[in-house]
Every structure is written in C-alpha cells, then in structure tokens.
Amino acid sequence: MKPITRREAIIKGGRLLLGTATCSLFPGLASGCSNQELDPDIIARLIQNTENADIRNIKLTVVYDNVPYRKELRKDWGFSCLVEGLDKTILFDTGRYDNLFMSNLSGLKIYPHRIDELFISHDHPDHIGGAMKFLGIRNGINVSLVKSFPSGFKKEVKKTGANVTEVYQPSIVSKNCLSTGELKNFVKNEHSLVVLTNKGSIILTGCAHPNVIEIVKRTKMITNKEVLLLVGGFHLLMDSGSSIRRKALQLKELGVRHVAPSHCSGEEALKIFAEIYGDRFIKSGVGRIINTNDFS
Question: Tens-digit pLDDT profile for the chain (296 aa)?
Fold first, then answer.
C-alpha cells in the first residue's frame, strides 16, 4: 500500500483543499495566529499549574490515517492518535468513518474505557467521524474543542453525557499537556495538543490549517521549551516542492528535533522531510507506535 497521492487527496478533500488553495492566494486570510494576543498572566498560570511528563513513559499510537504503516489495519483519509503515559490518556481526533475507527481501535487493542479525554482539533469530517460512536461507549469524559465549533455538534456531544470544554485562549488539558488555544484560519479554526515532557514539547496537529510554522512558533511562545517532536497532518498537499522544502528548513531552524508527518502532509512532503531530517524523521501511518526508542 502507498500513501495517498496528491491527486487522490484533491479528489477526496474536494472543497477543503480548494479552500486551502484560496488561502495560498490570499495569505492575509490564511494567517491565523497573529490575531490572538497571548495574555502573559494566562501563560504564567499555565506554566505554574502544569509539569513535565517523563518521556520514557510516553507512547503515541496512530489509530487512523490515510498513510499506511501496519498492513492489518485499514487506512482511510483522516487522522486519530492516542497519547499514553501522561496523567491522563488522551485521544486526539477520531478519523472519518466511525466503524473503521472503532475497528482500528479494536485491532490495536485500545479499549475505550482506558481513555480519559477526547481532544478534537477541528470540525472537518475526517477528524470527528468516530466521535459520537466512541462517546456512546465511553460515557462521561471531557471533550476539548475550539469555541467556534458548531453548536449542533456540541449539543450532540453533551447528549452522550460528555462534558464539553470550549477552548479559545491557550489552556490546560491535563497536568502534562496544553492546548495552543484556538488559532484562526480562512478554511477552518483549529487548536493543537502540546505534551510537556522533560525532553521538550510534543505537538500533535490535526491538519495544521493555521500553518504548521505558526503552530510551532505559538507553542514555543507558550511553553518556552524546545520542540522534541511534531506529529500529525502538516497540510502541505497543495504546496510546491520548493515551498515544502522551505518549511521543513524553517522547522529545523525553529529547533524542531523530530518530525512524524502524515495524513494531509502529502507524499512529496514525506520524501522531502525524510531527506532533510534524516534519522530524526519518524515514519508514521496507521498503527505506528512512537515511543522513547524513536528519539535520538
């Protein structure tokens, strides 16, 4: 199996990707991070009330992805990742199709009752598709989502018995992790999950609609830490090879030590990041488990 091609992704993504192309033509509309000033008092409270997790305990498992990794698991356009080894076990996004999502959870021997929190990056179908089915089984947990999420979705989440936390400013998700806060974008507002470790931050991005570079910059401003790992969708499918290369080099200059791009990053981006990052490029895809052994 091969990762989805740019042409296939454009067909699958339809208007979502066309919206991104519009942003590239009008960069002022695409820049999402500069319109929300960071409140120093909020940031001080975040740092005061969080602590670093031990990197030796952390495990990331990619549950849903269109990039293949383990052949026995089904790939499909979308993303989901489980984060373990923190004070809470956190599920990040839920892919596109609920039956496929639940099937992959089962195939990975991930049981819903083990999960303490659901973090949803944004409300595109390929990131929320399994949410209601999952919440119907795992009742009463907290769901973190950005404030701009449709009210109808929030109501449906609450009907399952879950609590909804609406995120706007950077905020605490658990003792060991934060939300970047809602970052605005012409296509879709989004927030990313930041795991605090004794070796630097781990950033999980759903699609990085607000620009993967800006997400990293925002994270460093919030945490005052170097970035150990950037994982998830980098949304580079519509970028030229030269643009992808420039962004990969920018991330390196920003001190991002390891990268594990997948989902909407695109096959060309995977090749370029692998070239630029060398042994600090982590091959990802559905079923991939990332742990201490992957960090040089």
Answer: 445 444 455 445 444 444 333 333 333 333 344 456 788 898 999 999 999 999 999 999 999 999 999 999 999 999 999 999 999 999 999 999 999 999 999 999 999 999 999 999 999 999 999 999 999 999 999 999 999 999 999 999 999 999 999 999 999 999 999 999 999 888 789 999 999 999 999 999 999 999 999 999 999 999 999 999 999 999 999 999 999 999 999 999 999 999 999 999 999 999 999 999 999 999 999 999 999 999 87
Q: Which of 40, 36, 46, 45 is nearest to 178 (CA)?
A: 46
Burial of residue 235, with CB atoms counted within 10 A of its CB: 0-12 exposed, 13-18 middle, 19 or more buried: buried
The CA–CA distances, whole Å, from 161 to 88, 111, 132, 134, 154 equal 19, 19, 11, 12, 11
Answer for the pair 230, 212: CB distance below 8 angstroms, yes or no: yes
CB 264 within 8 A of CB 237: yes
Closest CA to 175 of 242, 116, 232: 116
Query: What fold is seen in the domain 6-290?
Result: Metallo-beta-lactamase; Chain A (3.60.15)
Which among 4, 28, 33 is positioned nearest to 17, based on CA atoms? 4
Q: How far apart are CA 187 and CA 210, in angstroms?
A: 9
> What is the model's pTM?
0.90
Give the residue extent of every domain in the chain.
Answer: 6-290
Q: Among residues 95, 94, 91, which one has the least CA distance to residue 83?
A: 91
Pairing label, strands 258-262, 289-290? unpaired
